[in-house]
């Protein structure tokens, strides 16, 4: 379960590479990386142990968008209540709501 209280303020971002790696980064890191790319850096340090060649840089995306895309690839679907369901699973959210679950 996610904590909707504090963490909602912190925007989660994914840095994605063409080679398929993705890194969860902060807005601050995203700004810094964008700045470095604009300055013509060839290699960028993402984390303590991860470096990325700028030619491999695909983009920085809202984590929610990336996670939604992954779920859809796995065959999951989002119902009108905003919940994800497994492929072939029926939505029981209306009933759950009715009983206050
Ligand atoms: Zn549902």
Describe the 3D structure.
- By secondary structure, this protein is of the alpha+beta class.
- Helix content is 29%, strand content 25%.
- The strands form three sheets. Strands 2-1-5 form a three-stranded antiparallel sheet. The chain has a two-stranded antiparallel sheet with strand order 3-4.
- The protein is elongated.
- The two termini are 14 Å apart.
- Residues 79, 81, 83, 85, 91, 93 line the site of zinc ion.
Subunit organisation of the chains: single chain
Overall 3D geometry?
elongated
- Proportion in helices: 25-40%
Distance between the termini: 14 Å
Question: Which compounds are bound in this model?
Answer: zinc ion
Total number of domains: 1
Tell me how many strands there are.
Answer: 7
Radius of gyration based on Cα positions: 18 Å
Q: How many helical stretches?
A: 3
Q: Strand-residue fraction?
A: 15-25%
Mean pLDDT across the residues is 88
SSE succession: EEHEEEHEEH
Q: Segments where pLDDT lies below 50 for 5+ residues?
A: none
């Amino acid at each position: 379960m996610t904590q909707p209280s504090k963490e909602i303020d912190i925007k989660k971002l994914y840095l994605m590479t063409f080679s398929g790696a993705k890194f969860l980064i902060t807005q601050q890191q995203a700004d810094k990386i964008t700045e470095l790319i604009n300055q013509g850096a060839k290699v960028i340090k993402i984390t303590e142990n991860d470096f990325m060649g700028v030619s491999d840089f695909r983009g920085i995306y809202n984590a929610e968008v990336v996670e939604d895309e992954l779920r859809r690839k796995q065959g999951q679907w989002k119902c009108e209540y905003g919940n994800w369901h497994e492929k072939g699973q029926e939505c029981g959210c209306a009933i759950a709501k009715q009983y206050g679950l």
